[in-house]
Amino acid sequence: MIHRLMLAIASLVMIGLSTRAFAHDVPDPSRARRVAPFVGAGAQAPSGATTGSGKLTFRHYPLSIPDEVAASLVHAHGGFAVDHEKAGGDGSTYFSLKGVGVLRLSPDLSTLEVVGGDEQIIPVNHHNTTVLRHQGEAFLALPSDEAQKAFLTTTGGQVVRTFPNPYGDESDSAFRVCDVEYVDGFLFAANGYADNVVFRTDPFRGSRSIPSTGWWDEERFGGTGRKHGRFGTAHGLARVPDTKTFTVADRANSRLETFTATGRYIGGLNLPEGTMPCDVDYHRELALVSCLKGPGGSTPAPILILRHGNLVAELNPGRDLGLPGFTHIHHAAFRVRRDSEGKERLYVLVYAWNPGNFAILEQVSEE
Asked: What is the sign of the dihedral through the CA atoms of 200, 206, 210 and 215?
């Protein structure tokens, strides 16, 4: 399936798209605190309500969350990172919430734990989250558009290294970093709320025994523009599984653009005007695109599921499930669980913004 996905990337065909037709040109608790019902910002969907279509039909999967998380969810403005089993992880999902710090969702999706972290990461927003594995150990990369730096932490939220503004803290050039991704030993960072340059670094260069400041390499690419290889807003980064390539969700230009780890442009996919894709996640031949708005700028916004570049399902937790706060989808991620018979069931984790919210969607029937 990855082979077909890479063939799709390599076609380099860019075309206009309708909301129902897409081109084949991109790949596709030991410390857990007492919890309370998820109320207020996260009401439960009506019984029987579903979203999506066919085998990709989903329902709301209720979750109890800590009180402090419920109180802060309205300010949510980030994304998820899964410590995938295939990479040696335990299947935990990490994300961050301003004022709370790092959160961990258990592999079975039953428990949300407040991990917290160092004082320097709790007061600021982290615009997304990435899991990095190095010498068998998992770390988190937390890009902060507010602090204008990226933090490398343990999964317990202890800061190991910080990566500051590549232009210097005293520079007039801002580092409004939207997302980071780890590909082929390099951490890539998208300066999407500033000059749209994509920077890179080896995050484990040198000793990490003492928390220190890291630095960005001279190699970089991108910039602002409509031409391929440039961005309107370089918003989300996602590695294409089992490859040394990654996709940039270009929000302002409503398209997905894929690059090699050397920054070479491979190909892309135009999405309907006004959808403003914030990020993408992959599972086998499926791509999950979180949108800030619907076609033409409509709301509540959808999550698009593509197979080999073709739209196969549209999830809309705000419209179809009646979940409050899902006006804009900031990030969505796939998770897979097996039932007692060993059959896979697909789940989608959804992070909304403005207002913020968080939900889990469960596949009604197996893929």
From this structure: negative
Q: How many domains does the chain have?
A: 1
Q: Phi-psi category of 156—alpha, beta or left, where left has phi over 0 and alpha has psi -120 to 50?
A: alpha
The CATH number assigned to the domain holding 345 equals: 2.120.10.30
Per DSSP, 30 falls in state T
d(CA 74, CA 157) in angstroms, rounded, equals: 22
One pLDDT digit (tens) per residue for the chain, 367 residues: 433 444 344 333 333 333 333 333 333 323 333 333 333 344 578 778 999 999 999 999 999 999 999 999 988 999 999 999 988 999 999 999 999 999 999 999 999 999 999 999 999 999 999 999 999 999 999 999 999 999 999 999 999 999 999 999 889 999 999 999 999 999 999 999 999 999 999 999 886 666 688 899 999 999 999 999 999 999 999 999 999 999 999 999 999 999 999 999 999 999 999 999 999 999 999 999 999 999 999 999 999 999 998 999 999 999 999 999 999 999 999 999 887 788 889 999 999 999 999 999 999 975 4
Q: Select from 242, 252, 258, 246 the least CA-distant residue to 297.
A: 252
**What is the token pair recorded at 50?**
């579903």
Residue 273 belongs to what domain range?
Answer: 2-363
Whole-prediction pTM value? 0.88
Burial of 47 (0-12, 13-18, 19+ CB in 10 A): exposed
